[in-house]
Design goal:
Chain lengths: 365, 329
């Protein structure tokens, strides 16, 4: 675990032209400790992350934690507390089994725990029923994100011959979710260096400017909850877009890196994030609008469907959005027109949301 | 109402967690398996035992070359200790009283935590000399040292046996299995206890908060929208409709799960404003539909547990119209 976070942190520092001594504080994030069976791993990561003698803290908001961690780190800078903060999110899922970790039943609780897929599959069924989306919509996303991953050497899943037929032939795990509609279980870490305006101005390399950031939460269960299109996600996006001056996300962003752990969540989040009217998300997916050559590429990196170290996945979305506006997207670089990109994460039973907007230019407001 | 119920809750990953241990711990555990204690040299903190991968002061990577490693001990000095008068069965290394001690092996600059076996705390002192008592069958674990025992003056500890790892590192310990068992005592709390009391009578208990008309089946004790206690008890019908569901085809996900394929559904009970998750049986998985009317199947012998409500099964009534449940998706 120490080596995993170290590798990401060393690379981020090198990219930012900094050393451990430049860093004022370290913020780490990961999902439940039950995945690795190490309680409070942050306690022993201080030396691996150069945090000795510095403030260090850990953030935890389930699957959205990578995004929330980046936001907490950024707020330590925008608040004027620190000049340079290193933030790292990670997960080492090979040490146990995430589906087991998410299925532990408590005494007295009758809930039939059947993994993350068992939780999200009925919600996906509701979406299909409500929107009338064709059954292959999820499969289109499953293929598109895996094709994108082939251009990203860091993506964990490379399936060169991925096709609709292959997805449709894969086992139906939690009907309507097929095996290839799901994300893998990965080990991985993502690190970002967050600097103040002065630090960014002095940077020799390209930086991503933070134009806005927002977090929202809601209970997993309440009367008449809209589990398909959660109000917390809609409110989070609204707040975010107001900060960043986004009026039409489909036109105002060059790319979006959105947390899509099950393929159907692309059309669902297209609606939740206001890229189209409610009920129309599947049409954008079907029309190829979100493809790498579409007018608003979603997950050009390959997304969560191609790499899912759960705790890191949100920060990977935030970081990949930043790489795009820095022009560091490599073979999966999108064309920069507005110079702005969205990073998004959600977690728990769609109960935590964290998002940021990054841009290649310094925000004017 | 009876007192809240209490239950044991054990969380244990089957088979134990698998650890890939990294280069430093690999050398350390391989050394222990070979009957020797290894330390790593650092620029700022001397020889560290147990070894670490990064300098504790500068975060510099250490231990990368063979020259960075040094065999310490086997004799050592007790730096501090605590006497364990009443060891807890299965939770501590010995059943008879012993000491946990910080022991600095000769040649090391840090102390390691381990056990010292003597017959009484009077036989222990800070600064006393000790040596490891090795297990015969060693696996690459800190418990390959059974315990530390007093080293009488003039006695030399036995030399370590030959190494078992060749120059290419073949035969090294590179991972381990770590069984972890967390044993909790869970209290059901007032709301769940009321729900379980209902189970014993074949009823689904619910509640609502005084300021709200919304009724929560299997309330967790508060109205999630306001945080107000759902202090008004409401018995909910044991009939309702399926709002949405999935067919699970993965076997063995939990101890409660029936053979696959099975249907896990959200059920909107008549008179409730929230859905509950439940198992659907009594028909084929492919026959289950959104809107399907269902009723609870109660166990023949009702108990104060959720097992009283075995599953929901179709009533045969016409399906509920979509408008009846569209606000609960």
């Amino acid at each position: 675990m120490a080596g995993l976070v170290r590798e990401a942190a060393v690379e981020a520092l090198a990219d930012a032209n900094m050393t451990w001594d430049d860093i004022d504080a370290v913020v780490v994030g990961k999902a439940p400790d039950m995945f690795e069976g190490i309680a409070m791993p942050e306690l022993y990561l201080a030396d691996a992350l150069g945090a000795v003698g510095k403030p260090m803290m850990r953030v935890h908001t389930a699957g959205s934690v990578g995004g929330s961690t980046a936001i907490v780190a950024t707020k330590l800078v925008t608040s004027g507390v620190h000049e340079r903060v290193l933030t790292v999110a990670f997960e080492k899922q090979s040490e146990s089994n995430a589906t087991w970790g998410l299925s532990v039943s408590q005494p007295f609780n009758a809930a039939l725990a059947s993994g993350a897929g068992g939780y999200f599959a009925p919600i996906i069924r509701s979406y299909i029923e409500r929107s009338g989306a064709p059954r292959n919509t999820g499969h289109i996303v499953a293929v598109k994100d895996r094709k994108n991953a082939l251009r990203n050497p860091r993506a964990h899943l490379h399936i060169p011959d991925i096709s609709l037929e292959m997805v449709e032939a894969s086992p139906l795990l939690w009907d309507p979710i097929r095996y290839l509609d799901t994300c893998p279980s990965s080990d991985g870490a993502m690190a970002l260096v967050i600097g103040s305006e002065a630090v960014a101005d002095a940077s020799k390399g390209p930086v991503a400017w933070v134009h806005g950031m927002a977090m929202r939460s809601e209970p997993t269960m309440f009367a008449h909850r809209d589990a398909v299109n959660p109000i917390a996600g809609r409110e989070c996006a609204k707040d975010l877009y107001a900060q960043a001056g986004i009026s039409d996300p489909r036109k105002d962003f060059d790319a979006a890196e959105v947390y899509v752990p099950f393929s159907w969540y692309e059309p669902m989040w297209l609606e939740n994030l206001g890229f189209c009217a409610e009920g129309d998300g599947w049409k954008l997916t079907q029309e190829g609008v979100t493809a790498a050559d579409g007018d608003i590429p979603w997950n050009p990196s390959g997304g969560v469907l191609s790499s899912n170290p759960i705790g890191a996945s949100g920060m990977i979305r935030f970081g990949e959005a930043a790489q795009q506006v820095r022009g560091r997207g490599g073979d999966y670089q999108v064309e920069l027109k507005t110079g702005r990109a969205l990073g998004h994460a959600y977690g728990g039973g769609s109960q935590f949301f964290s998002m940021w907007v990054v841009g290649s230019q310094k925000p004017q407001n | 109402m009876a007192e809240p119920m209490i239950a044991d809750h054990i969380v244990e990953y089957p088979g134990g967690y698998t650890r890939s241990i990294g280069p430093a711990i690999s050398r350390y555990l391989t050394g222990l398996r070979d009957g020797r204690i290894l330390g790593v040299k650092s620029k700022t903190a001397g020889v560290l035992v147990p070894p670490v991968e990064y300098d504790p002061n500068t975060s510099e990577e250490i231990g990368g070359s063979d020259d960075d490693w040094v065999e310490v001990g086997p004799a050592g000095t007790v730096e501090s200790f605590t006497w364990v008068r009443r060891p807890r069965a299965e939770k501590q290394p010995f059943s008879q009283p012993f000491a946990f001690a910080l022991i600095k092996p000769d040649g090391a600059d840090t102390a390691m935590l381990h056990a010292v076996v003597v017959s009484s705390p009077d036989d222990l002192s800070i600064g006393m000399r000790v040596m490891p008592h090795w297990k015969v069958a060693r696996s690459g674990s800190v418990r390959d040292i059974e315990a530390w025992v007093p080293l009488p003056s003039g006695v030399t500890p036995p030399a370590a046996p030959p190494r078992t790892v060749n120059a290419d590192g073949e035969g090294a310990v590179t991972g381990l299995i770590q069984p972890i068992k967390l044993h909790y005592t869970i209290s059901a709390g007032v709301a769940t206890t009321r729900y379980l009391d209902g189970m014993a009578q074949g009823k689904i208990a619910g509640g609502r908060a005084p300021g709200s008309t919304e009724v929560y089946a299997a309330s967790r004790g508060t109205d999630p929208k306001t945080g107000e206690p759902t202090s008004i008890d409401v018995d909910i019908a044991d009939t309702g409709c399926i709002t949405t569901f999935c067919v699970v085809n993965i076997p063995g996900l939990s101890a409660l799960a029936p053979p696959v394929p099975f249907v896990s559904a959200h059920v909107l009970l008549d008179g409730a404003d929230n859905t509950i998750m439940a198992l659907i049986r009594g028909c084929e998985a492919h026959e289950v539909r959104m809107g399907m009317r269902v009723k609870a199947k109660w166990a023949e012998k009702l108990t104060r547990t959720h097992h009283s409500l075995e599953w929901f099964e179709p009533t045969g009534e016409p399906d509920a119209p979509y408008d009846d449940y569209k606000d609960n998706l």
